[in-house]
Amino acid sequence: MSRGPTLRPPPRRERYAVILAGGSGTRFWPRSRRRVPKQLLRVLGRRSLLQATADRLRGLVPSEHVLVVTHRDHAAGVRRQLPELPHANVLVEPVGRNTAPCLALAALEVERRTAGAVLVSVPADHAIADAGEFRATLLEALTRAAHEPVVVAVGIRPTAAETGYGYIRLGGHRGRRAYRVRAFVEKPTQARARRFVASGEYLWNSGIFACQAGALLGLLDRFLPEVTGPLREAARAPRRTRHAALARAYVRLPSVSIDYGVMEKAPDTVVVAGAFGWSDVGSWAALADIAGAADGRTPVIPVDAPGHAVFGSGRLVALVGVQDLIVVDTADALLVCHRGRTQEVRRVVEEIGRRGLVEYL
Fold it and tell me: Chain-centre distance of CA 178, in angstroms?
């Protein structure tokens, strides 16, 4: 099979990385709270998920070209955890409006700084086992994006029939690990997921992609002018009034994901297949799959309690005659959940809000 022509990577001065750090992490309650969401937590080692993400980008893009988009409630926490980041590299959203406005804001900033630059968008809260392979895959995505004005997604070779991930159906081969995207597929049922994996025609959708900043803005203008119109208007405001202009703009923006708003509609989308030990750490069960049965700081005594995982505050936890339980113990709240239902923890957060128990949010 032909590998196609060798493409030259874009110069480092033309590469940017955008870390999306605006999520609330409701599935990680009670550790994740409004002021300290999932991406700011140290759930896998000494560094938070956000810090680990920034660490992995070293060498791929210049340090001054790393941008973080976050909610205003989390901006101070982001700056504390990444003190090396220039103040202007933390792009602050006044309200959350999902990933399409996040990336429109970032692409406008990248294009303002370096016309013709290419960016890679990376969620702040993923876990990666092989940082070297991660960087190599992202460099390939950046390289392909630099040579043609298309979105280049990063897909993951599936290792199981997961139902918690979206999938990418592969089209024609484009050389090396790249393929044309035939379709983006929403989270499937278990039966469909098994068929996807068995066919060899699908990748997990990692939520990571590369694109020329100008090309991304063109796609956003085409498919989501209701997003780019107000943001372009705010960007033209004098610097002294820009913060207020951005706040007014965000009130008018729809809440829409980049996947739904752009990537599922964009022509000629390409995907690069990666295999670097990826997890979106989307639930306590997913974290348990990575970290094991205990967090290392909580003594656990299981008696006839298979399949457990405990994330504690240091107090001893004893389990007797139970199976497949996740236990999360904090100073003011305790979560006990079946391992197969950790995606539903967000319902607890919703109920806390309905009851007005804001001190637990």
Answer: 21
pLDDT in tens, 80-92: 999 999 999 999 9
Residue 66 C-alpha from the chain's centroid: 15
C-alpha–C-alpha distance, residues 112 and 157, integer Å:
35
Cα angle at 204 between 54 and 175, to 5 degrees? 90
CATH says 12-282 is which class? alpha beta
Q: What is the pLDDT of residue 5?
A: 67
Give the CB-side neighbour count of residue 50, counting CA atoms within 13 A: 29
Lookup: tokens for 48 = 């938070």
Neighbours of 140 (CB within 10 A): 21
Among 60, 81, 58, 69, CA closest to 14: 60
Domain ranges across the chain: 12-282, 285-360
- Cβ-count burial of 107 within 10 angstroms (0-12 exposed, 13-18 middle, 19+ buried)? buried
Question: Which has more confidence, 5 or 173?
Answer: 173
Q: Are 168 and 202 in contact (CB under 8 A)?
A: yes
Q: Cα separation of 180 and 6, whole Å?
A: 17
Q: Answer whether 0.90 is exceeded by the pTM.
A: yes
Average pLDDT over residues 179-187: 94
With CA atoms as reference, report the closest residue to 20 among 67, 57, 59: 67
Contact predicate 202/185, CB 8 Å:
yes
Pairing of strands 270-274, 178-185: antiparallel
Task: Cite the beta strand spans of 136-264 per DSSP E.
Answer: 152-156, 167-175, 178-185, 202-212
CA-to-CA distance for 303 and 324, rounded, in angstroms?
A: 13
Angle, in degrees to the nearest 10, between helices 213-223 and 225-235: 120
Q: What share of the chain is helix, strand, coil (3-state, %, to 5)?
A: 40, 25, 35
Coil, helix or strand for 181? strand
